[in-house]
Design brief:
The protein is mainly alpha-helical. The protein is 84% helix and 0% strand.
């Protein structure tokens, strides 16, 4: 499969590449998030509001583990895409194999460290008493399956970096179908409740891994067992790159935990409301999540081929696509806000939060999308340290004042709008940072000292144009 790149992102229409990769990836992502949403709906149908809150708390903690795998997959996609851009398919396979080895080790070690400390970690995000017991019973089933997700993500990311958009969406679709079938059977049919939802998810992860392995059947040994020499050659590069990406990803659940803790101070209804929004948003904005994963390989291939102008164009096309999509979905959410509240049986503060989200407040999705695109650009341009630093500032010291001050001054609504203002500030910072790094890469790739005077002037004009248009 990788002997010849499935799609060459260094040629053809960049806007088409962005659309195709985003929409095909969004199908698989949408399927996953629809199932997550159905999980919450099934749990809500059990009639215990604390079960929905427990699922939200468990999801927040599990997000810590998921983001480590996401960080590894980001590193894999960037390095594989860059290798393919240079025309080196063998190196791309070796990179993926090394990433799988790393993700497997992480998927075993991290759960072993977390399991003895689960109640402490749940307490840290505000889950205590019966609520903590419910969340624990859910998490303890899912944690041992972490390694399967890591391997699947590395394989799917390789497919996306290779431009095999359709092959990359099948694993997610299959896993989502398995989850959707077994959720009601285990939750209601066997009366397993919250634990049934967790068991169905484990079955879905196994199915996802099996389908993700299928496109590599002719290269399975080379991918899964790249050999000691290949691993020694690439372990430092992918390990250090993945470490930065993983640390950057881990910052997000820390911010989410801080946010959840603040909402928990307003009671179970507020937690239930933000949990529903947390499941709803990824469904309706699935294309945005796909866009952030699609833009990285496109930029990485062009950067590997030293086509810097196409890197800039890819960024701009992604931002335009993002704006149009968010505007359309925001209007749809506003029109369907009453039905959404009715479906989940939300009342009190939960209902008020959902109404707030299904309003122009949904612009927060556009701001988060800009951050994701900018982070994709920084990773593709070889600056994962910038992404890591930005993510940690954004989700820790940069987030805390907005949460605390907003909550103190205006209660629950101050907390919500504090989040919106925080996201706007850091979206602006991320765009400026991506532009700065891009211009430095252009300057280093085309040093003015090597130009004749007229060429140097043309180069300077190109840099200035990039600053205005990227």
């Amino acid at each position: 499969m990788t002997k010849k790149t499935s799609v060459d992102f260094t040629k053809g229409s960049l806007s088409k590449h962005v659309r195709v990769m985003s929409f095909t990836a969004s199908i698989g992502i949408l399927a996953i998030y629809v199932v997550d949403l159905m999980d919450l709906l099934f749990i809500s149908m059990l009639g215990d509001k604390e079960l929905a809150a427990a699922a939200g708390m468990a999801g927040t903690l599990l997000f810590f583990v998921s983001t480590i795998n996401i960080g590894l997959s980001i590193a894999t996609g960037t390095l594989v895409g860059r290798a393919l851009g240079k025309g080196d398919a063998q190196q791309a396979r070796e990179m993926t194999g090394t990433a799988i080895m790393v993700s497997t080790v992480v998927g075993i070690v991290v759960p072993l460290l977390m399991i003895p400390n689960l109640y402490f970690l749940l307490g840290w995000i505000g889950a205590t008493g019966e609520l903590a017991d419910m969340a624990y019973s859910y998490i303890i089933i899912l944690l041992p399956a972490t390694f399967m997700s890591g391997i699947s993500m590395s394989l799917v990311t390789h497919l996306r970096a290779d431009g095999a958009a359709r092959k990359a969406m099948y694993p997610s679709l299959c896993g989502a179908l398995v989850n959707l079938v077994f959720d009601p059977i285990l939750i209601f049919g066997l009366g397993m409740g919250l634990q049934g939802a967790a068991a169905a998810t484990v079955m879905a992860r196994a199915a996802t891994l099996a389908v993700a392995l299928y496109p590599f059947r002719g290269e399975i040994r080379e991918i899964l067992f790249p050999g000691f020499q290949a691993m020694r050659k690439h372990i430092y590069e992918i390990g250090s790159y993945a470490l930065y990406s993983a640390f950057a990803s881990v910052a997000a659940p820390i911010g989410q935990a801080m946010m959840m803790r603040q909402f928990a101070s307003f009671g179970h209804e507020a937690v239930a409301g933000i949990s529903i929004i947390g499941r709803l948003a990824p469904v309706v904005f699935a294309v945005i999540n796909a866009l952030s994963g699609a833009i990285g390989p496109i930029m990485a291939q062009n950067y590997g081929a030293n086509q810097m102008e196409r890197v800039r164009e890819a960024y701009r096309d992604a931002a335009k696509f993002l704006g149009l999509y968010v505007a359309a979905v925001a209007i749809l959410l506003f029109l369907l806000r009453s039905q959404i509240v009715s479906i989940f049986g939300a009342t009190g503060q939960a209902q008020e939060l959902i109404y707030l989200y299904c309003s122009p407040f949904a612009i927060i999705a556009f701001l988060n999308g800009l951050i994701a695109i900018s982070n994709g650009a920084l990773n593709s341009l070889g600056q994962p340290t910038y992404v890591m630093g930005f993510s940690w500032v954004k989700n820790t010291v940069g987030l805390w004042p907005f949460l605390v001050v907003g909550s103190y001054l205006y209660g629950l609504w101050g907390l919500a709008f504090g989040l919106l203002l925080h996201t706007a500030v850091f979206a602006y910072i991320s765009v400026r940072l991506a532009k700065s790094v891009y211009l430095k890469k252009v300057a280093s790739a085309l040093p003015e000292d090597d130009f004749a005077p007229d060429q140097a002037q043309a180069h300077s004009m190109m840099v200035r144009e990039g600053a205005m248009q990227m």
